[in-house]
Amino acid sequence: MWWLNLNFPIMPTKLSSLLARVGVSGVNKPKATPSHPTKSHVVVAKVGDKTKTIRFGQQGVSGSPAKEGESDADKKRRASFKARHADNIAKGKMSAAYWADKVKW
Q1: For every residue of 38-66, which 3-state class applies, written as one string?
Q2: Contacts 24+ apart (CB under 8 A), 27-34
Q3: Which residues form the domain of 31?
Q4: Average pLDDT over residues 11-35
Q5: Within-domain flag for 7
Q6: Domain tally for the chain?
Q7: Once rounded to an integer, what is the mean pLDDT over residues 29-47?
Q8: Is there a domain that residue 97 lies in?
Q9: What is the pLDDT of residues 74-105, one digit of tens each?
């Protein structure tokens, strides 16, 4: 049967359609969203059976990942972010603060 193409699933699952709609390559894989009006990144987070689309990061504001020869101001800025959001970062993969800390800081 030449018209039957078995290279793709016939009935896409809810998760795969969510991944395609959001435009990420997989679960727990963040992606930059430069055209979003307010948020800089998106991720489809999954822990156990729970799945959630999370948008995080202020558009146009860069974080300060640790780098060689950085200024004291950058170190203090990163430390302030981590202290200010410590409770939410500790909640794990289902929080925007966790992903902002991992990707931007």
Answers
A1: CEEEEEEEEECCEEEEEEEEECCCCCCCC
A2: 27/51, 28/93, 30/99, 30/102, 30/103, 34/59
A3: 14-103
A4: 86
A5: no
A6: 1
A7: 94
A8: yes
A9: 899 999 999 999 999 999 999 999 999 999 98
